[in-house]
Amino acid sequence: MNKAFKRISLLRGYIWNIGYRPALGSVEKRKLGIFNFLNIIGLFAGIFIPVAGIISHPYRLPSTIWAAGCWPAVVSTAVLLLNRAQKHELAKLLYFTLYPVGTALVYALGIDPGIEFFFVVYAVLSVFFLRNIYHIIFSFTLSVTCFLLVYHHSHIFLNALAMIFVFFCLLLIRKENLRYQEQSRDRNWQLRRSNLKILRQKADITGKAALLEEQTQQLTELNSLKNKLFSVIAHDLKAPLYAVRNLFRNLLRYDAPGDEIKRLVPEVINELTYTTGLMENLLQWAKSQMQAEAVRPQLLDIAGIAREVLQLLRLQADAKKIYIDSKIEHPIFVYADKDMVNLVLRNLLSNAIKFTPMEGCIYLDAKELRSCIEVSVQDTGTGISQEGLQRLMAHNYYSTRGTGGEAGTGLGLMLCKEFLSRNGGQMNIQSEPGKGSIFSFTLPKGGEVPD
């Protein structure tokens, strides 16, 4: 039973969609489906009537009767074929021309099948199905004319007036229906536009809210970082200033001997070196926050910058008797901001000196990769734990005291990551506790502008 219903449903769907194309609207699609079913009925009627005639009057019916009986099947078949070829208007015009003419011929042959009401049906259906107003007028006029020619009645004039009145009423209904459909389409279109506008506004508001939330979070983090930095700076600046003050106070009050002064000077120098680095990093950080896009890339020789930085940090390394081996012997060019690259290399070398014990070694190298230049700073220092590595790679600052008790804020490494990012590079850290560390960074090759 289920299979039978399924087959019937498939057959109904096939008939309904004969000649359908996506360009047709929903209303026209329904009209096409109904029109197809009308022709299927006509097709079966054109088959059933002759078969019934053969059964009831074999060999006794004239040829005209057979022609009249088969006429609906011929017309409906032609209409369905035209629909299948997507010639819908021609199929409808053929239907509303041949059916009234065929019915009129049946009456003209002296046969009265009692289907004169079909003339009215054809006229009414032509108004419903046809789209071209001239085709409607032609089909309606043809049906009415055929009716008046074959239907002999004393009130023929009144019948004609009545059919003309029905025709105009149907035209008014059709016009009103089309206007209603057009207004519905306009309302639906306006509703869709309104919904689309609301969705866009909602998406825009959501995007702005997300951006505002992100900016709020960034400002909160920046404000928190600022508070922590100022707290650390306020504390760490006291020590070197007090050391200098105490040194000169002792010189002034107690006339300290030269040996004692020499004993105090290295500690003061160490404190002042830290303070100088802290102030430089602090000023660079403040500058980077005020001029977020102030990056001036140019062609740079890493070998030249390495020599400048090594000269600057020579005394700091000599104080701990650390050997620095630079393997950058030939010019290697990158495309980046000079001041930012100088700060990055200076901070990494300064950190390497800070965490390398007395008489340790630091190796500076640069090599050309496929799409960038990689610069590395390797030390034989204390190394970093896994937890420390995770904190270093986070966006917050992290610092511990060096092998000589050197203090730090972690601001320098944070600046290094930010400046490298702005110049199209990135940092990589490899380290194990007790086995030293390798800090490496990449920069675009000379002549290549970073994205």
Task: Please tell me about this protein's structure.
With about 450 residues, this protein is α+β, with helices and mostly antiparallel strands. It is built from 13 helices and seven strands. The chain has helices at about 1-15, 25-55, 65-85, 90-110, 115-130, 135-150, 155-235, 240-255, 260-290, 300-320, 340-355, 385-395, 410-420, and strands at about 295-300, 325, 335, 360-370, 370-380, 425-430, 435-445. The strands form two sheets. Strands 2-4-5-7-6 form a five-stranded mixed sheet. A two-stranded antiparallel ribbon has the order 1-3. The longest helix is centred in the middle third of the chain and has 81 residues, at about 155-235. The mean pLDDT is about 75.
What layout of secondary structure does this protein have?
Layout: H1 2-16, H2 26-56, H3 63-84, H4 88-108, H5 117-129, H6 133-150, H7 156-236, H8 238-254, H9 258-290, E1 297-301, H10 302-319, E2 323-326, E3 333-337, H11 338-354, E4 361-368, E5 372-379, H12 386-393, H13 411-422, E6 427-431, E7 437-444
Parallel strand pairs: 2-4
Antiparallel strand pairs: 1-3, 4-5, 5-7, 6-7
Helix pairs in contact: 2-3, 3-4, 4-5, 4-6, 5-6, 5-7, 8-9, 10-11, 11-13
Compact overview of the structure:
The protein is 68% helix and 10% strand.
Main β-sheet, spatial strand arrangement: 2-4-5-7-6
User: Taking Cα atoms only, what radius of gyration do you get, to the nearest Å?
Assistant: 49 Å
Shape: rod-shaped
Output the structural class: alpha+beta
**Mean pLDDT score:** 76
Along the chain, the helix and strand elements come as HHHHHHHHHEHEEHEEHHEE
Counting DSSP E segments of at least 2 residues, the number of strands comes to 7
Number of helices: 13
Q: Main beta sheet: strand number and arrangement?
A: 5 strands, mixed
* Terminal Cα span: 69 Å
Question: Strand share of the residues?
Answer: 5-15%
Poorly predicted runs of 5 or more residues: none
Indicate the percent of residues in helices: 55-70%
